Amino acid sequence: MNIIKARQLVHEYIRRDEEGNVESIQTALNHVDIDVKEGQFIAILGHNGSGKSTFAKHINALLSPTEGSLWVDGKDVADEENILAVRQTAGMVFQNPDNQIIASVVEEDVGFGPENIGVPTETIWTRVADSLRSVGMLKYRNHSPNKLSGGQKQRVAIAGVMAMEPKCIVLDEPTAMLDPNGRKEVLRAVRELNQKKGITIILITHYMEEVVDADYVYVMDKGEVVMKGTPREIFSQVGKLKEHHLDVPQVTLLADILRQSGINVPLGVLTREELVEAIMRIAG
Amino acid sequence: MLRDITIGQYYPADSVIHKLDPRVKLFGTLIYVISLFCIKGVVGFVVATFFMAGMIALSKVPFKFMVKGLKPIMILMLITALFNLFLTPGDVLVSFWVLEITKEGVQNAVLMTIRLIYLILGTSVMTLTTTPNQLTDGLEKSLRPLNKIKVPVHAIAMMMSIALRFIPILIEETDKIMKAQMARGADFENGNMLKRIKNMIPLLVPLFVSAFRRADDLAMAMEARCYSGGAGRTKMKPLTYVKRDYIAYAVIIVYLLLSLLCGRI
Amino acid sequence: MSIIVDKVNYVYSAGTAYEIKALDDINLKIEDGEFIGIIGHTGSGKSTLIQHLNGLIKATSGSIYFHGQDIYDKKFDLRELRNRVGLVFQYPEHQLFETTIFDDVCFGPMNQGLDKNEAGLRAFEALRQVGIPEDLFYQSPFDLSGGQKRRVAIAGVLAMKPEVLILDEPTAGLDPGGRDEILDLITRMHRERGMTVILVSHSMEDVAKYVNRIIVMNQGRVMFDDVPKEVFKHYKELEAVGLAAPQVTYLMHELRDRGLNVDTDITTIAEARAAIMKAVLGGKH
Predict the structure, then answer these.
(1) What kind and span of H or E run contains A45?
(2) Which chains border A (3 or more CB–CB pairs < 8 Å)?
(3) For residue A48, what is the nearest residue in chain C, using CA coordinates?
(4) By the 8 A CB rule, do C48 and C23 touch?
(5) Is A121's CB within 8 Å of B236's CB?
(6) Is A275 domain-assigned?
(7) Do B225 and A113 touch (CB under 8 A)?
(8) Which residue in A203, B259, C182, C265 has the most C-beta neighbors within 10 A?
C-alpha cells in the first residue's frame, strides 16, 4: 500500500499587501505526483527553492494543498479532522537542530511528543528509552541538549519523532547545518531505522551522496518533479543533474568524464568500489 | 562574561536535592527568602548559613560553580552596599567632605550584602538542581487553582520553560553577533550613553530577527509533534510526593520556626 | 611577511572544572598573497585560531605579529588591525541589520571613519564584486535569498578593503549553486586583488580545488601544514581524526593497491582523469 500518495499537488504562496490585495503569487509546487510505499527509503533532491521543503510540510499537514490532494496512510491531509492522526503517522525532523528541541533535558524532549498525544506515563518511559536506544543516544538521556554536537542533537530530534511511533519519518534537510561527522551519524541512524524497524523514510536533501542508498529518488526543480528513478538511473544522467544545479559526487563525475574520454566505464556509478572494479576490468 | 551566568542553568548530578519534588524546592526557596529578610541578628544568620551549607552539600553541586553565579551581580551588590553605607542616618563614625559613614550604615551595608549573596546562592541551589521543565511543572501544579479564574497556567508554564531553554542559545548568539560586528569595526565600549545605545542597534536588530526566526521554527516543530495546548496531555514525569518530600517539608518548617525564633538574636 | 603566530596558547574557562585547551602551542607564518585552507572538525580550534588573527580573542600566552608589530603591544591599534584583517563569520547573514542592503554594506567603512560619499563608493564597489544587481541595492536585506544574503554580508567586509580576508565556513548550509558562487568570488578576490585569503572549511574537495596551502587542526594543535598534495598523502592519519582526503585520492590509492600503475598524490578530478587515461590506455599499447 502507498503510505504517501500525492496527486496533482499544487501549493501557492500568496503575498498580500496591507489592504489584502494579492501582490504576488509564487507557485512552490506545480502538479506534483509522488508515491511512496510503506517501508521504502525515498530521497527528494533539489536545490534551495525547488519546492522540496514545501512538499515535506504537506506530508505533516503543516501546509495545506492549494489544489490537488495528498493522502498519508489513506488519510487526506486537507481534512482538518485528520491532522493529529497524520502528524502521528508521519513525523518530521527539521533542518536547524537547535530550533526543534523544546526541553532542556534530552529525555524530556523525547517525551514531549508522547505527552502531547496523551500516552500514559509508564508507556512514555519505555518509548523514550526505546527511541533513544534506536538512535544510539540512550546514554545521553540526562544531558542538556546545549552540550551536544549538531549530529547528536539531530539524533535526539529523530528520537523525539520515533517516540510517537510513526510509520514514516520526513527529514527536511536534516544534515544541512552539520559537519561531515554529524552528517554520517544522522544518515546511519536514519538507515538503521529504515532497515531494522521498517520505518518509511523520506529524506529531503541537496547532497547527492546522501541518496546513494535510497530505494527511489525524486529530483525537484521549480516546484516540479523533473527526474525520478533508482539512484543508479538518476546518477547516470550527470548532465541533467547539473542542469538542475545539483552537486554530483566526485566519483560519479569522474566516471562520467572517463566515459566521455572514451573509457568504457558503466553508466550511473554510485560508489568508489564500483568505479575501481570497472577501471580494473578495462585495464585488464 | 556572558558565559558566567549560572542562574537558570541546570547542573546534572545524582543527589537528594535533585530528586526532590520541585514543589518542595519552590516552597523551600520561598521560605528561605522570607527568612532572610526577617533575620536581623548573628544567630539567625548562623542558622541560615547552616541550612544553606547543608543544602549545598546535599546537592553535590561544586561550591565553586555556585560562586560563579555571584560574579554578574557583583556591581549590584557594590552599589547596594555603598548606598547603605553612606545614606543611612545614625551615629557618625567617619565623615569626609559631604559623606558620612554611620554605625547603622555599616550594619546595613553588611546585612544587605550578606542577604544578597545568600539570596543568590539559595535560589541557585534550586535552579541548579531542578531542570527548567521540572520547575515549570512545579509552578504549573502549584498554581493550578488559578485556572479557575481563567489564568492560562499551562501556557505560562510552557512559555517559561521554552524561555529558559533558549537563554543559553541566545547568549551564545549575542556573543557571536557582537564579535561579527566588532570585526566590521563596531564599537560597543566607548562613547557616551546616547552613542552607546545607538551602537547597540547592530547587535539588537540581528538578535531579534534571529529570535523571531527561532520562535517560528520552534512553533512549527511543536505543531509537528502534535502539540495543541494543555488539554489532553499526559506527563512523562508527573509530580507525586514520596517520603523524602514529606521529610523535606518537615525540615523546611523546622528551619522556618528556628529562624523566626533566633532571627532577632 | 604578513602574520606570524608565535607559540600561541588559548585556554577557555581557565581555572575551572570546564577548562579546555582550545589552542595548544600554535606556530604559523602567513605570507602576503597566500590562499590557505584551514581544516579540522568541530571543536578542533580552527574558529578560535582565526579569531586570534584579528584580535577578537586574546591569546592566553604567546604573541602574534602583524607586519612585524606585536598586536598585544599597548600602543598597537586593534581596530586598525580589524580593518586590515577582515573576518567573515559563519552564517554571516545573521549579522545584517540595516534597512537597506546598501546601508548595511556601508556600516564597516563608516566605522573606519570614512565620510558618507567615500563609504558609499566602497559599498557600491563591494556589492558589484559579489554580484548583487543594482536594482536590489535599496531593498531590505531580509527579503533576499539565502545565498544573496550571504554575499551581501561578505560585501560588508570587502567594503572595508582588508588586506587579509578570513572566512569561517562561508559555504555552510548553501546549496551547490550558492556554494560555487561564493567560492568563485573568493578565488577572484585572491587572484585579481592579490588578497591573502584564509578559508576555513569542512570540505576537502573544495579546499583541494582552490587553495595552495592547507593547515589541518586537531585538538587545538596544527597537525599538518603543507601544500594539498603533501597533506593528502597522510589520508590515513586524516581519517583517524575524523577528516578525509578528497574521494579521488582514495580512488587512486585503491587502484594502486589493486596493481594499476597510477600516481596516488592526486587531489582533483582533472588530475585523476589524466592519470587513469595514461594507465589504462598505456597498458593496452
Answers:
(1) strand A41-45
(2) B, C
(3) C175
(4) yes
(5) yes
(6) no
(7) yes
(8) A203
Same domain, C134 and C192: yes
C32 φ, ψ (degrees, to nearest 5): -60, 140
DSSP E strand boundaries for B6-120: 92-96, 99-102
Do C76 and C147 share a structural domain?
yes
The count of structural domains within chain C is 2
Distance CA A148, CA B171 (A): 17
Task: Return the residue of B nearest to A115 by Cα.
Answer: B234
Where residue C285 falls among pLDDT bands split at 50, 70, 90?
very low
Cα dihedral value B27, B33, B37, B40, nearest 10: 100
Distance from CA of C35 to the nearest CA of A (A): 22
Q: How far apart are the two ends of chain C, measured CA to CA in Å?
A: 51
CB contact under 8 A, B234 and A118: yes
- The predicted model gives C189-205 an average pLDDT of 89
Asked whether residue A57 is assigned to any structural domain, the reply reads: yes
**A280 located within any domain:** no
Report yes or no on A270 lying in a domain.
Answer: no
Instruction: Say how far apart CA C183 and CA C200 lie, in whole Å.
Output: 12
Q: What is the pLDDT of residues B167-200, one digit of tens each?
A: 888 988 999 999 999 999 888 887 788 888 888 9
Query: Would you list which residues of chain B are within 8 Å, Cβ to Cβ, of chain A?
Result: 10, 12, 131-133, 161-162, 164-165, 168-169, 213-214, 217-218, 220-228, 232-238
User: Do C261 and C195 have their domain in common?
Assistant: no
CATH code of residue C163: 3.40.50.300
Tell me: do C211 and C263 sit in the same domain.
no
In the chain, the amino acid numbered C205 is E
Segment 141-200 of chain B within 8 Å of chain C by CB: 173, 176-177, 179-187
Record the pTM.
Answer: 0.85
What CATH number does the domain containing A32 carry?
A: 3.40.50.300
Domain identity same for C117 and C9: yes
Which amino acid would we find at residue C232?
F
> Residue A173: closest CA among chain C residues belongs to which residue?
C173
The ipTM assigned to this model is 0.89
Average pLDDT over residues A160-185: 93
Q: What is the domain extent for residue C170?
A: 3-242
Beta carbons of C87 and C3 less than 8 angstroms apart: no
Name residue, grid cell 547543608: B54
| C250 and C185 both lie in a single domain | no
How does residue B2 score in pLDDT terms, banded at 50, 70 and 90?
A: very low
Instruction: Please spell the DSSP secondary structure of C53-96, one letter per residue.
Output: HTTSS--SEEEEEETTEETTSTTS-HHHHHHHEEEEPSSGGGG-
**Contact yes or no for B225 and A120 at CB 8 A:** no
> Which one of C42, C146, C251 has the shortest CB-CB distance to A272?
C251
Give the mean model confidence (pLDDT) for residues C155-172.
94
CB contact under 8 A, A49 and C145: yes
Report the number of distinct structural domains present in chain A.
1
Spatial neighbors of A152 by CB under 8 A, at least 6 apart, are A137, A140, A182, A185
Check whether residue C164 and residue C177 sit in a common domain: yes
Q: How confident is the model at residue C107 (pLDDT cuts 50, 70, 90)?
A: very high
Predicted confidence at residue A201, as pLDDT, reads: 96
Which residues in chain C (157-216) have CB-CB distances under 8 A to chain B? 157, 160
Q: Residues A177-223: pLDDT tens digits?
A: 888 889 999 999 999 999 999 999 999 998 888 999 999 999 999 99
